[in-house]
Design goal:
2 domains; Rossmann fold; alpha/beta
């Protein structure tokens, strides 16, 4: 376990805190401030104990050639000030103010390249380094690795959000209570192959859905019409099915599908059991698969979910994802631990208003997936271990 910001003395000191304020902004207005809200416990821990803060973050994917107005963190500074009910100094280095938010790190190419000179300039802004940005923990960017390296000899700790993510995605999974079920979906099988391989033999059951399932179904010899298939990964999918058969993990594929000829709300649909006809594509798991998966989930003690079961953003192809989310929520009510990966899974949970029904919803899609693959993060390893 890593030492956390609330475990060290911050009185009279300035904490350089890497946060994840990569929030959606439309016409200068924040449309979802959850990532700002999630950072508040660490921020308030410092301020309530007499410390000062210099906050650093990225936003979006600017070119790195300098200021780009659509990616400015200025709206974030305004919203943070409202949430804290205090002034937040934006963009300027200010040693006297309690809270400073610097401009988007990615306006400099030095952030993504891990430039040492860029990192040293940032490192001068704090007596203590705190990483509370799980969403970028898998990236060796300057603010994640080179900055704490430049602050060697000073405290380098985890924020409360990062510690919570590690608790659930590392410790809770490693020490999972069984039956342990993984629900994996989403568009690309290539994104999930590493996670499936790592989870074989660790989880009791893997339930596959989403577009990625069709590459596996092709590997079994069944027709999938014009469903999305990664042809170059069919052999890998077949090998994974064989590896699952040889392991203690049972791998399930959808047995029926809600199909259409295009992705539109008005498109005619049909529910297909078995092979999908030519010209049709699978866009959601069908009722029989929902029933089977829900039955398995009702007996689970630990559940991890990463990736929707269909094109949930478009009706009527949201039903599979909705029903699986409800089944996981019910399992949690019965005492199961439910851990939801970030990205589309978190968006689906929010759309279905089931946020409070999950044990933990990760703030990092890519980072949570890499943890499911068993990968270690340099940005975390560099932090001080708990005493």
């Amino acid at each position: 376990m890593k030492q956390t910001i609330d475990q060290i003395d911050v009185a009279g000191k300035r904490v350089l805190m890497r946060v994840d304020f990569n929030v959606p902004i439309h016409h200068g207005e924040i449309t979802d401030d959850r990532r700002i809200q999630m950072a508040l416990p660490s921020i308030r821990s410092v301020l309530d104990r007499g410390g000062k803060l210099t906050l650093i973050s990225h936003l979006g994917r600017p070119s790195g050639d300098g200021f780009e107005a659509p990616y400015s963190l200025e709206p974030v500074a305004k919203r943070l000030g409202q949430l804290l009910t205090r002034d937040v100094v934006f963009s300027e280095v200010d040693a006297t103010s309690d809270v400073v938010l610097l401009e988007n790190l990615r306006f400099s190419t030095g952030e993504k390249s891990g430039d040492a000179k860029f990192a040293k300039a940032l490192a001068k802004q704090g007596d203590i380094y705190c990483n509370d940005a799980f969403g970028t923990a898998h990236r060796n960017h300057a603010s994640m690795v080179a900055v704490p390296e430049a602050m060697e000899g000073k405290p380098r700790v985890a924020g409360l959000l990062l510690a919570k993510e590690l608790q659930y995605l590392d410790y809770a999974i490693t020490n999972a209570e069984k039956p342990f079920v993984a629900v994996l979906g989403g568009a690309k099988v290539s994104d999930k192959m590493g996670a499936i391989e790592h989870l074989l033999g660790k989880v009791d059951t893997i339930l596959l859905g989403g577009a990625m399932a069709y590459t596996f179904i092709v590997a079994t010899g069944e027709g999938v019409g014009k469903s999305v298939v990664e042809s170059d990964r069919v052999k890998d999918a077949k090998n994974m099915i064989e590896a699952a058969t040889a392991s203690s993990t049972v791998l399930y594929l959808p047995v029926d599908h809600v199909c259409a000829q295009n992705i539109q709300e008005s498109a005619p649909t049909q529910t297909v059991i078995g092979s999908i006809p030519d010209g049709w594509m699978g866009l959601d798991i069908g009722p029989e698969t929902i029933s089977k998966y829900a039955h398995i989930l009702q007996n689970a003690k630990t559940i991890i979910w990463n990736g929707p079961m269909g094109v949930f953003e478009t009706m009527p192809f949201e039903e599979g994802t909705r029903q699986i989310a409800k089944a996981i929520a019910k399992a949690k009510e019965r005492g199961a631990t439910s851990i939801v990966g970030g990205g589309d899974s978190a968006a689906a949970i929010s759309a279905f208003k089931l946020d409070s029904k999950m044990t933990h919803i990760s703030t990092g899609g890519g980072a949570s997936l890499q943890m499911l693959e068993g990968k270690a993060f340099k940005s975390v390893a560099i932090l001080d271990d708990a005493v």
